[in-house]
Design goal:
Purple Acid Phosphatase, chain A, domain 2, binds fe (ii) ion, alpha+beta, 584 residues
């Protein structure tokens, strides 16, 4: 590793956000960095060199090039390296140089050839990193994992400068002085700050990312160019475009390139389009013939929430006619058709749907709710009591997820089952909880299999019939954003004047018990931790391990433990049920 030249500024000054790689191809990947032009008092364009080598010491240099950045993109740099010197499914090392200074180096991994026989794939996946609510310890732990690639499922930044749920662990202020990001300067400032976290930097340096966004890259519970949270949100195309532009500049996705040629099917970003059409995020990734992944966008093309946009219209509500109205969409017709066609025609052993919001139904039973009411803050209890009158089947926990778009969900599931699609696993973030379970066409119909018996391997029938089961789902909890136990525990602590650390365990237990009873298709619902998941695919089975970190309240406290663990064997036939066995 060369030292900075005499008089050259150190790497932490020239490249304070370090480096990242993403969107791999069999012969390359996207490389990212940022030159801190204001800190270096640079006003004109900056020329950088980049190098890809076969070894971490850069003794065997394979590809080099130069590129340019300037202030119009806040000094961000994207190069798509594509070169026959790079072999499929192989690790390489890369770095940038500018002003006589070399960046820290990163490691990238190219993709296998799409038709190659791959027998093992390890994917780490994570989402929901709120700077203000804690440190990104989980990403540091994920950096240390022996995974091939990392899927980032969104909420890479949070638009709010203050964590409303649990107080502020790390302070943040925005250039506009607003509580939530509004301008391009605000959104850029979020990414610049988040990307100084040392654990986040290490995870990027160590692994190649495949990233999609969720709501908080723009605004909480957003849909199209609308923020949610008020009775009748006005469209905010300029704010949406600012958020999109900052994301395109800072996310290691193969769009808005400085130089190089991204492969066909990469993310498209065209700032010349209207704000609701600037990005086509959805794409497919083939990990040989072992795993065929589709990555979707469940924000930009979706309809409004079914029963209204205020918090009280979306969370813990009995629903309304619109929740199952035909024609309502989460994906938009073009993306939905592509999704169904791609999954329906895939010949891969495993089909992976990497998405933002929980696919499975999530309800809270009326009987359990009644017992809760006495404990809750009075305004919340009063509201729930009113809802309960019309809630024969309980309340939907969250209509921002697929429960608010039920006709489209059922249609996709029915079409894929009819197409005899097997071995479909959905990986999700968004709800800040560790969740596992089965996706179905109709969650209120009698269960087609004995879920608890299958989970515990107590079933006498080794190949039960599929019924309306689509596949399996595994959600990773948040990297640092407030989980449900933190949220409810803090609310109860204020109400009951009991220290929150006395409440977390009973709140967590109560939540898990209530949700398990109201949602038999769930194999797990746990919302008391922060962490990430690792999915290991082989020719015969999938293993999902949910890793949890001890705390996000202190920097550097990187204690991590393997928590819940599940095994999914390959389906034996298209009409055989997908199975989940609990390992731990
Ligand atoms: Fe989130």
């Amino acid at each position: 590793m060369p030292e900075a030249g005499r008089g050259s500024p150190p790497p932490s000054v020239v490249f304070p956000q370090s480096v990242a790689s993403g969107d791999p191809a069999p012969d390359g990947a996207l490389l990212w960095t940022r030159v801190d032009m204001p800190a270096l008092a640079l006003t004109g364009p900056v020329t950088l060199g980049w190098t890809v080598a076969a070894d971490p010491e850069f003794r065997t240099v394979l590809v080099t090039g130069t590129t340019v950045t300037d202030q119009s993109r806040d000094g961000t740099v994207k190069v798509f390296v594509s070169d026959p010197a790079l072999r499929p499914a192989t690790h390489y090392w890369y770095r940038f140089t500018a002003l006589g200074t070399a960046s820290r180096s990163g490691r990238l991994r190219t993709l296998p050839e799409p038709d190659s026989a791959l027998h093992s794939l390890r994917l780490g996946y994570a989402s929901c990193q709120d700077w203000t609510n804690g440190y990104f310890i989980a990403l540091g732990a994920l950096a240390d994992q022996d995974v091939d690639y990392v899927l980032h499922l969104g909420d890479y930044v949070y638009e709010a400068a203050r964590s409303s749920a649990t107080g502020t662990v790390r302070a943040l202020s925005l250039p506009s002085g607003s509580d939530t990001a509004q301008t391009l300067a605000d959104y850029r400032s979020l990414y610049r700050t988040y990307k100084t976290d040392p654990d986040l930097q290490r995870c990027h340096e160590r692994h190649t990312f495949l990233a999609i966004w969720d709501d908080h890259e723009f605004a909480d519970d957003c849909y199209g160019v609308h923020a949610s949270g008020t009775a009748d949100p006005a469209p905010q195309p300029e704010r949406r475009a600012a958020a999109t532009r900052a994301w395109a500049e800072f996310s290691p996705t193969a769009c808005h390139l400085t130089s190089g040629q991204a492969p066909p099917g990469s993310v498209e970003f065209d700032p010349g389009q209207s704000a609701d059409r600037q990005v086509r995020l959805w794409r497919e990734v083939r990990f040989g013939t072992l795993v065929h992944a589709v990555l979707t966008d469940e924000r930009l093309h979706r309809d409004a929430h079914p029963c209204g946009e205020q918090v009280s219209d979306k969370y813990l509500v009995p629903g309304c006619a619109e929740v199952s109205a035909p024609g309502r969409t989460m994906l938009g017709a073009a993306q939905r058709d592509w999704l169904v066609q791609t999954l329906g025609s895939s010949g891969a052993a495993w089909k992976l749907w990497a998405n933002q919001t929980m696919l499975m139904q999530l309800k809270l039973g009326s009987a359990h709710l009644s017992a809760l009411l006495a404990l809750l803050p009075r305004p919340v209890a009063d509201r729930l009591r009113r809802h309960l009158h019309g809630a024969g089947d309980g309340l939907f926990v969250n209509l921002d997820q697929w429960d608010g778009y039920q006709a489209e969900r059922a249609g996709i599931a029915r079409t894929l089952i009819d197409a005899r699609v097997t071995d479909l696993v959905t990986m999700t973030g968004d709800l800040h909880s560790s969740v596992a379970g089965w996706s179905r066409v109709d969650y209120d119909a009698p269960p087609p299999i004995d879920f608890p018996a299958v989970l515990a391997r107590r079933t006498v029938d080794p190949t039960p019939a599929r019924g309306d089961l689509l596949g399996t789902c595994f959600m990773a909890t948040s990297v640092s954003a407030a989980n449900l136990v933190e949220r409810f525990g803090m609310a109860l602590s204020r109400r009951l004047h009991i220290p929150v650390h006395h409440l977390n365990r009973p709140v967590g237990r109560a939540l898990e018990w209530m949700l398990a009873h109201a949602n038999p298709h769930l194999a797990l619902f746990e919302s008391g931790s922060h962490g990430f998941n690792v999915a290991e695919f082989t020719d015969t089975e999938l293993t999902v391990t949910m890793w949890a970190v001890a705390s996000v309240a202190e920097a550097g406290a990187c204690q991590v433990r393997a928590g819940h663990r599940f095994l999914v064997p390959r389906q034996t036939a298209p009409d055989a049920a997908p199975l989940i066995h609990r390992l731990r």
